[in-house]
Amino acid sequence: MSEHQEYYVPDQSKWPIIATFGLGTTLFGAATIMVDGGQGASTRSGWMIFIVGMLLMAYMIFGWFGSVVRESRAGLYSPQMDRSFRWGMSWFIFSEIMFFAAFFGALFYARVFAIPWLGGEGDRGSSNMLWEGFQATWPLLNTPDPSLYPAPKGVIGPWGLPLINTILLVSSSFTITVAHHALRADNRKKLKLWLGATIILALVFVGLQAEEYMHAYQDLNLTLQSGIYGSTFFMLTGFHGAHVILGTIMLIVMLIRISKGHFSADNHFGFEAVAWYWHFVDVVWLVLFVFVYVI
Questions:
Q1: Run of H or E including 49
Q2: pTM for the complete prediction?
Q3: Domain boundaries, the chain
Q4: Distance between CA atoms of 251 and 237, rounded to whole angstroms?
Q5: What is the pLDDT of residues 137-154, one digit of tens each?
Q6: What are the C-alpha distances in Å from 17 to residues 23, 48, 55, 64?
Q7: Residue 158 has pLDDT above 80, yes or no
Q8: Topology of 79-294 in CATH?
Q9: Exposed, middle or buried, 259 (CB in 10 Å: 0-12/13-18/19+)?
Q10: Residues 81, 7: contact at Cβ < 8 Å?
Q11: CA distance 214 to 217
Q12: Cα angle, residue 29 at apex, residues 28 and 31 outer, rounded to 5°
């Protein structure tokens, strides 16, 4: 008779339904903030709903991942389960690639098609009649209707903070790779050192990004309301920054688990998945740096 590999089937879990309510509440709160803010109304209720949703999501993430960690530590997972985790993380990163591709696509469409059409270029140049005299340039510092969309006074050049942040993220990809090799060699001291360095680089990146945003809002009048350039700039850099913050939290959790003796040289996909995610965040920033700041 052929032998069948054992496959662990977990008990019924409350976490999927909590995730559903948490995500739905978060998105409803975010939509309420945008709608009320756009109408000039108070956004207090929207923020309260959003915060409740985020707290539910945090509760779900820590609870669900805690269950996975306990099951893994108990030796309940088989090689097939490991492959399932790897495929799941691969598809998750692919979905994130498509997420950012949509925003880069919007940037490409605005720069290559929509703005030149408004300036009278191309086969739809008649759109120029909407705002006669409009000059198509990029970055767009002369919006078609300044009364609705005040133009920014300037843009953030690539060779200041953005370049420093690029160096930081590229360096962090190197440090987490060294940490991964240290884990595979079962060198815990080296692992903690290089993972800690990765976390420090990530925190510095977030701090400099916040400083850049303050400079944009306070000194350059570059905001989400500054026409299509301001919208695409903050949507791309903002969502990337959110991913960096999430990745940093994941790195900190990995350091805590390593300090507790979790993972081994042969069994450490939790760490490896975070490393995959961090490399993805790094690559997105490189593309963002070129197409948002440089070109």
A1: helix 44-73
A2: 0.86
A3: 13-76, 79-294
A4: 20
A5: 888 888 777 777 788 888
A6: 10, 21, 15, 11
A7: yes
A8: Four Helix Bundle (Hemerythrin (Met), subunit A) (1.20.120)
A9: exposed
A10: yes
A11: 5
A12: 65
